[in-house]
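Example record for the data management plan.
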Amino acid sequence: MMVAINHTAQHHLINGRNLFVETYGHADDPALFFLHQGLGSTYSWKEQTQFFAQAGYYVIVYDRWGYGKSDPRHSVITSGFADDIADLTGLVGVLNIQRAALIGHSDGGTLTLYFAALNPEITACIVIISAHIYIELKMKPGIMQVRKMFYENIWFRNALERLHGEKTSRVFSNWYDGWMNPVNLDWDMRPLIRRISCPTLVIQGDEDEHATPQHARDIAEAIPGADLWMPTGGKHLFPQVQPEIFNTKTLSFLKKNYVP
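Corresponding structural encoding:
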């Protein structure tokens, strides 16, 4: 039976910028962060927030700097996410979180990998969905297809505007310019993520539009003891398109591996 879930929505000043943060559940429950993808927002996790709060977690979702209801941003360096790491670290402090599990999708997954490698004392376990740890050939056609949709598909453009309002064009250009920057060609996270010691679940659909299956295998192989799940027919937006399957698998992993 569904029960009423405590919900808060407010801005927190982190590193000089206002970030929009929502929480679901009770602060004394095990903390669970959800980190959205490169064009997403807190709304991207609408199929997960209530579900995991009902399962007994203190769910925390936020619009990263530049997205949704958070302050605008002029650029994103996708090969490092240094500002995003600093914001997540600051938010953990403001919310007085001592230990947490993190679930990150796409860019949010890459950010999760950085955070877990740099903050092992805080990170209980992580779930990574469709993250990137280096540039591969498949990424460019996928990015160009999204660009075509942004400029030619009014439904897609309107959907982004509902998430980001007047910041929509800047959100898209930050994402596009960030990943198309030639500086990324030498970027490879594998030496860093080998330091991750917490339980890890790597998820990538076998029909992901932005990465080959080998990319997910490389992430799992680089992290000691990581589990790899490649759902048949899964696309890049797997948590949003097939939430029941994603939620069930992820909850099972958390119950087994998350000891607050």
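Summary line stored alongside the record: The chain has ten helices and eight strands.
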